[in-house]
Design goal:
This protein is an all-alpha fold and 78 residues long. It has three helices and no strands.
């Protein structure tokens, strides 16, 4: 049903049967929007959102560490 509702607005719609599958879909695809059901089986929407946030924070930290390392290298060369 959701696929029909959103198919005219989005080129690709990815579906998952539960929160655990949803995390796998997110790990394999770049998405613009995530629509969660709070009462999904295996991993509910709140737990999935916490996992997404935690993953994004870790990715941001790695990027910042890489940028700081590049900055230090550039500073040392100057």
């Amino acid at each position: 049903m959701l696929q029909c509702m959103f198919s005219y607005q989005f080129e690709h719609i990815l579906l998952a049967g539960n929160g655990e599958e949803g995390l796998e879909v997110l790990a394999q695809n770049s998405v613009d929007m995530v629509l969660l059901d709070l009462e999904m089986p295996i991993l509910d929407g709140r737990a999935m959102l916490a996992a997404i946030r935690n993953d994004k924070l870790q990715q941001m930290q790695v990027r910042l560490e890489q940028q700081n390392a590049e900055l230090l290298i550039r500073t040392d060369e100057a």
